[in-house]
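Why do we care about 3D structure at all? Because function follows from shape, and shape follows, mostly, from sequence. That is the central idea of this module. The next example makes it concrete: a single protein chain, its amino acid sequence, and then its structure expressed as tokens.
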Amino acid sequence: MEELLLLRHGKSDWRVSSSDFNRPLKKRGRRGATRIGQWLRDHDLIPDLIIASPAVRADATARRCAAAMGLKTSVVVNDGRLYLADLNTLLDRGVAIFAKVCFGHQAQANSKTSRDRLCLRRPDRPAYVA
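And the structure:
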């Protein structure tokens, strides 16, 4: 069975004077990215490919998560369509491919419509909120 895992980037550092796109992760965000990678590894949810927004915080989250799963960071592919896209756009465009992990931004999972379309969690897998 193929699975789609959607993750939001780690906590970003708003104290840094930069554009939204270039905003880095806070120390807490870096720790969280490593923790979720370890959790995914421990629950045998290791993806074939990780597709990430090219925004600095999303890319950094994806690469730290991959490393924590024991994957080479070459499994991380940046896709500009993920930056600020909502979940419906991702699913409609086919960017979110099954058996992959997509790291994006908060808007992807905020709307009730988007949450209603997420019927992808297997009942035999535990849920996790970072």
